[in-house]
Hints:
single chain; globular
Amino acid sequence: MSGAASNPLLGKWRIVRTDLWEADYLDMVEPAFIEFEHDGLGEFRFGCVIGGLDCHYMSAAAHFTWQGSDEMDQVRGDGIALLEDDGTLSGEISFHLGDEATFKAKKW
């Protein structure tokens, strides 16, 4: 959990775009988001996917592993999030032995 105290990624981010799924899927259940917490944990939700994060913070980035569910099936994977110069977040969420999706998010 290094670098968590003042990391600019902390808080909730609205996922606005991915390269695999359209906006209507992303927001099917609730508005899509990814959230990073001070304690090194977090979560994301989009479409029918819910994931709990275990994060390692860097100066303006986070690497995370996650586990959760996709339409009630257990899934897990990893990902990365990077703070861009324009204040947006870009990253990737990967499913173990499955899809890899890039995303863009804006501070909520």
